[in-house]
Amino acid sequence: MIPPVEFLGKTITIYPIMALIGVFVSGIFACKQAVKRGLDDNDMICVLLFCAVGALLGGHMLYGLLQLPVMLQTFRILFTEGVSQAFWNGLIQTFGGSVFYGGLFGAMVTGGLYYKKKGFPPVFADLTAMVAPLFHTFGRIGCFLGGCCYGIPSVWGVTYRHSPVVEANGISRFPVQLVEAGWNLILFLLLSRLL
Do 177 and 186 touch, CB atoms closer than 8 A? Predict the structure, then answer.
């Protein structure tokens, strides 16, 4: 696990760095495939940007819904102590994480709406669906390096020392993130071959 680092007064973890690498790698690949098929790579970039915004919002919104007890506690503090720093701390705690399924749903909704509005041919959806597992490969590697989404205790595993989830530290755990990253990479290669 790679511990967070301080940079310009901000704490930076490895997961967003890996997610950004995934965005760039999958975006570059999708644009090259679009050009190969005689499509405008600027249109592909716009599609991917809409999907990325939807993924970001959807992932955080689902995480927030799963944190409903924390959200209710934040509103209780608001009514007893007034609007203060507690509100912002509660809001960050409530929506500060992300859930993949919410991100996938958000990307599908925003991407679908953009496709429909622009009247793009179906190959844009094919290209976007093809690079989604490639992006997720980098995301799961980021989870592994960040120490989140850890697996079950196992004799064949990885022992975290700096995981943000205290229960994960000091116990050998099966690296489920790397297994999922491998399957996502295989899925990407299969989809790119089929395309």
Answer: no
